[in-house]
Amino acid sequence: MAISCNEQIKVDGKLNETCWLNAPTIENFKQREQTEGAPATEKTKIAVVYNTHEIYFGIWCYDSEPDKILAQQMARDFSWGSDDNIEIMVSTFNDNRNGYLFVTNPNGALADVWVGDEGKDFNKNWNGVWDVAVERNDQGWFVEMVIPFSTLKFKKDSSQVWGINFERNIRRKKEQLMWQGWSRLYDVEKISQGGKLAGINNIKQGKIIELLPYVLGGFEFSEGQTTNTGKIGGEINFDITPTLKLNFTINTDFAQVESDRKQINLSRFSLYYPEKRQFFLEGKNYYDMDVGNVRLFYSRKIGIDQNTEVPIIGGMRFFGKLNKTNIGVMSLQTYAKDSIPTTNYSVIKVKQDIFKQSSIGVIVTQKYSDKHYNRVYGTDFTYSTSEIFGKNNLLIGGSFAISDTKVFGEIENSNNNNLSYNVFLSYPNDEIEYDLGFSTVESGFNPEMGFTRRKNYQMFYTELQFNPRFKKLPFFRNLIFKPIDLNYYINEETKETESISYEWRPFGFVSKSGEFLEFNVQHIFDKPTEDFEIINSIYIPAGSYWDNRLEIQFSTFKGRKIAVEASVNVGEFYTGHRQEFEFYTHFNLNKHLNIGLDWQKNYIQVPQESFTTDEIGGRIDYAFNPKLQTSIFAQWNNEDENVLVNYRINWIPKIGSYFYFVVNQEFDTNNGIKVKRTTILGKLIWRFAL
Fold this sequence. Notes:
Blueprint: E1 3-4, H1 18-22, E2 25-26, E3 30-33, E4 44-50, E5 54-62, E6 85-91, E7 99-104, E8 110-116, E9 121-123, E10 131-137, E11 140-148, E12 159-170, E13 175-178, E14 195-201, E15 209-222, E16 225-241, E17 244-250, H2 278-281, E18 290-291, E19 294-295, E20 304-305, E21 308-309, E22 312-322, E23 325-334, E24 343-354, E25 358-368, E26 372-388, E27 392-407, E28 419-428, E29 432-441, E30 457-466, E31 476-479, E32 481-491, E33 497-511, E34 516-526, E35 532-535, E36 538-540, E37 545-555, E38 562-573, E39 576-588, E40 593-606, E41 609-625, E42 628-637, E43 642-651, E44 658-668, E45 674-685, E46 688-689
Parallel strand pairs: 1-4
Antiparallel strand pairs: 2-4, 3-13, 4-5, 5-11, 6-7, 6-12, 7-8, 8-9, 10-11, 12-13, 12-14, 15-16, 15-45, 15-46, 16-17, 17-22, 18-19, 20-21, 22-23, 23-24, 24-25, 25-26, 26-27, 27-28, 28-29, 29-30, 30-32, 31-33, 32-33, 33-34, 34-37, 35-36, 37-38, 38-39, 39-40, 40-41, 41-42, 42-43, 43-44, 44-45
């Protein structure tokens, strides 16, 4: 129950205002881990108060050993999986599906997530306007959190009822506490298993217009030449209704985005690179739809063409929820560049909530220029329940898409064999996990605004895993056994077998102290129909190949000062053999400084030649406080033979506004070390609410 409070609350973590003294609290937390249903070993209290424009959460995290609290992160959007933390899941729509997750730790770090379909959509790149302060003393750590109602979307009712749940993690004990739905079958994102927040009356969402102008300036040194850069642009956001947002963007810019991690491709299929541009990440759940392994909308196709950045003139977005309907509309226009014409990219997606936890959706994408157009029409359906065989989870569904491509000036219709579809069943539960499905991607299916690694196939997949827990077994939290993990591909046209990937896991475990290990046996069949290059003019001949491989993966608990992840995979590789090693280490020196190093190495022996590949990366993050952080990221691999260095300062002068200072450098390592390119720029984004 939330109570109204007109007293001015200073967000400092002290919880000494009269509002907190009078507010009702919840204290009935139970363990989800390590002992399901057991009482909490440390006391937790939470109270909720609000005024016309803001909601406040007061949180008392008592701790009998405050010197052992784990909190190694301080940066905005920190990785909270290894820290003591508090997570608040709020479903303002009260729809048992969607909501906002707010996370903080004993250092006052902030992280927020847009959650859709009870965790199936998990967008960590959504950034809301909110703030938090933490006080630590000999009794534990204490939180004051404020969220303006303008950050949230909710129905325009005089009396609000929201879905809500709370989770506290005490990392040294590996103890996970939840207020409601504390079964291991459900995460905190499973909002249908949470509680309800009532008592919120006569609130206002606040400002309905948001201006986000930016100014950018910098220069680049390359091959003895200097190029100056200057740019202005921005966004305008209108709250059409309390749950629907209209966004206009002009001169859209992504100069502050970190470089992609380069990958050496030793397969015959395309590599996938994740989206990093905040503009596309913020509301991506409103536009995403997959058909099996095919992404119908892959935002990296906008503004990037043939590995070349193409400037975006501008565009609009319209997204949000109207009653039980999620709506996403986006249209962007790019400039012409070299041989690439000016092009319009548009997507429309509508998703309807049905039954208690299920949904049905449709999507249309279009890429249009004066040379051609490409359209994709898709639909999906998911039946979801948490009440199968008692209170277990089950998902059953399917998706379907068709593409339509037209090159202007050509009479011949190329829209043949242009379908893709997928049906699936998923039983994702604590001790038993099972997945089953069938996918088809025809040879002519062409999602130009999407992504697919391969075409012209039918694929059957199934996976069964057991995660038993034994109360009297020391050291182990649970064991892991996987008797089957199968992906079976056939050519869609000829119906001949193309690929088989079969893995079984005779043993694995998660320890009570947070360590993880698994041992896998892999059997891999591949039948390339033509020779393909793996690296530097070394080719794998067409033919049929059975490879048998062994794999071990291991990781330590990330909450330690030094944490390690490693894997070894050895065995046959087409005409030869391959030994693959991956190593990641994290140095969590203190709450300000975190260092990460990684190294992926392959030893490959094939008849033409034996060779090695090396990919090395390193990152140093230093957070002065939750609103000022700096990082340096460097990478190198022996195929490109250059070092890429990215240095960034990110300052939040006020919530919702950002300043970036970025230095990008490229070094050629072919013959010694030589600077090829240096780019230096600054970018200021300032938020105005009207």
